[in-house]
Amino acid sequence: MINKIKSILKNITGVLIGAIFLFLTLHEKPLEPVWESLADADYFFIFLSFICLFFVFYLRALRWKLLIEETGEKPSSDKVLTSLLLGYFVNSFTPKLGEIIRCTSLQKNSKIPVPVSMGSVMAERAYDLLILGLGIISIFFIELDRLQGIIDSTIGGISHIYGYRYIYVFPVLLLIFLVLILISLKKLKKSEHPILKKIIGFLQSMFKSLKQGLLLKKKFKFILLTLLIWATLVLLNFIYLLCLPETSSYHIFFAVIILFIGGLGWALPSPGGIGTTHFFLLQLFLAYRLDANAGISFGILSNGLTFIGTLILGGYGYFRYWVETKVKKN
User: Which of 1, 228, 308, 319 has its CA 20 to 30 A from that of 142?
Assistant: First the structure.
């Protein structure tokens, strides 16, 4: 019951954060030029973006399978893809709950223990956060003069949610929270209570899987898949730029900047990055002295196409999962 309440509160918080950032993005902005721009979008590139998005998911599934195999498990590629699509489908509506769904679904269709798959997901996220962090730092280092305003705008946007005085308290609270968890785990290890022993066993299996995922044996294949994923994401953003007449002439390097700066929006706990990605993309267009309406149009189109594409592919993943589990029962 407590976990359900926490999940509901987390979802409500994510929706509120997205709504506030969306309000900050669209507040007092003329929307008629935005709708006209979206109406002129190129349908060929819209279709191409869906194909590109599928390749992103497929490459992610291959990489996740590789991380799971580091633990000694041997899941099939199609079932890993099914669970991953199902997880991203759920992530479109809830902040990060899809990570749990894809692990539990993989347990049902492939008998992969949840702690093992969860640890591999944590390793996957750790590597992606590393690349995202390095990309953001590199871009800000190269384009600091233009992007300084995004830092100020972001702090201003967050302050509308939490207030200025609390912004710098969160990192300290997070550090204290992690230290308390580590201390608690050491004490709980000595407990003989059956429920606590199960919890500790789950956490130990998960962190063992995380460790195995971080200490890779097939480093070359993993690095190659990771580079292909991020290169395909750049291509996806470039295709989104080609969709709109106002942004079709932009250089592919701008797609790289969009990927990493827009990634800040995806990192925040908003379902599907709604609101947060729109806000960061608008600030990016303003920083480069580009048309604000084009920034809003691009944010709506790119986020919308990603959302729709994820729903379609995720729906396909749900259908496959339903068929697999139904056949197994029969």
Answer: 228
